[in-house]
Sequence to fold (597 residues):
Amino acid sequence: MRFAELAAAYERLEATPKRLEMRTILADLFRPLRAGDLERVVYLSQGLLHPEYEGIELGVADSLARRAVAQATGTDEPAVARRTKETGDLGLTAQERTAARTPLEPRSGLTVAEVYSELEKIAAAKGDGSQEVKVRVLVDLLVRASPLEAKFLVRFVLGTLRVGVREMTIVDALAESFAAGTKEARSRIEGAFNLSSDLGVVATTLAADGLAGIDRIGLTVGRPVRPMLAEREPTLDKVLDRMGGRAALEYKYDGLRVQAHLAKDGRVRLFSRRLEEISAQFPELVADLPRAVVAAPAIVEGECVPIDPDTDEIQPFQEVSRRRGRKHDLARVQAEIPVCLFLFDILLADGVPVYAEEFPERRRRLEASVRPTERVRLAAQRIVSEVSEATAFLEEAVAAGGEGVMAKSLKPGSAYRAGARGYWWIKYKRDYTEGLTDSIDGVVVGGFAGRGRRAGVFGAFLLAVYDPKRDRFESFCKVGSGFDDAQLAAMPKRLEKFAVAERPPEVDSGLTADRWFRPGLVLEVQGAELTLSPIHRAARGAVRADAGLALRFPRFTGRFRDDKGPTEATTAHELLAMYRGQVRQAPPASDDAAAAL
Ligand code: AMP
Fold:
């Protein structure tokens, strides 16, 4: 195919905002093509050279393209820059300057195959001298291009091909060119795209083998599957209703979705929700997954969250995002912010596609395929059929650092629906509050042995508030963050005089510390919000019969309140007032538990 034909089609696409017309233009463009050219045209029309997940970039900056346009058209660079400032589009400038040089639209003789392979050279140029290579290849192309071709070449390399072709428009056009154009054909083609994330493969298979071929496009290790997405409902009541009264609830971990592809030979590739490869950011997962998932070749999905190495508690998501895109210093960040992948689905097990199986079956397979390790575990799950059970599980999830729950349908038809958002999965997030700005003075009543970097010292402490009415110290958090090494090292000495063999009778907590202390030392902590908790005992029963208050994501401010005795610490009553003062609170209590303090 001549590149001029493609440029002409882009010109027509650009001129119409109508999806139907775009579909016809594209269908006409695709229809005569097969294999190589079809694949190239499909990728180019998406502004790509390869499927998006391969992440291949041309690496052409504006300045570089400007230089190429100037050289190719014999214009000085400042003039190119000035004109581009006026039009806002270097592609237009390239078109104008090329036309000025060669007033008649000549036949350039450029073919799509040629242009594509030159663009590949631009993408492949890396390291020293690569800029020169990119400019040279681009200049050579532009010198031969017609004005219209120059316009689209420049836009392509800048990533601003504005023909507005979305993936689904290409799917529509493919259905029209190579199948009957029916709804059914379209949905089969879309299905193949959702499983392969590669319209080039979809197009060439369809052109060669028709819809039968399309149906055979399945999962391939190393080729990401477009993720299944969730709908939302405002209350747990409605969630259960939608699910037909019974559902699997899972913690909704607040991190980064990871799709892990495990090859037979132990090779692992990780993809983000947007199908970018992120293997290099999580070497510890790449290392642990082959040990944890004993069903390779396999494709599994989970959520990756940071874990405090000392307390094994889930940390706020921002900690993971600090690792994104990081190349330097990865080892240090990895040690400081280790992550854990909580697996929640399996699409390919032992080389066999299982995505079409119903969810209970997939979960069973997932459990059978995973030997949990420190870095790779299963998402916590409970089957519920009562709102009260769902509420209790939600509280547990939030107390464990989750942001809510994910409900999953157990009904017939509960297959993994790649690329689709629907009520088979429903997310229910705890409403976020504006955060807690007040600090809390907590009394140290327990200590937990450190792990990893903190082996041999305390890694975290159990803190309590005081309830003057009951004369009790009620736990509200386990804090490990915010201590520097010197402060941690000094803690045993500070606590020595309070150490006791067993839990002091005045201390109330659902947690069992490694060491217990009589209430004495007061620390100032801050956190994200107060939530209901099944394990902490602060103001227990005040909001809900069997729940206490807990501080989410607690952090030591660095301030020891040696000026305060334990009974002068924050009281349970104050904590309750802080809870109530939060903009939004936990889900409405199922029973209107009263009993103010
Ligand atoms: P949202 O990003 O708010 O639309 O919520 C959906 C996302 O929640 C998914 O894409 C996952 O990244 C994440 N997630 C966390 N825990 C789970 C879970 N147990 N099952 C499915 N998705 C989960």
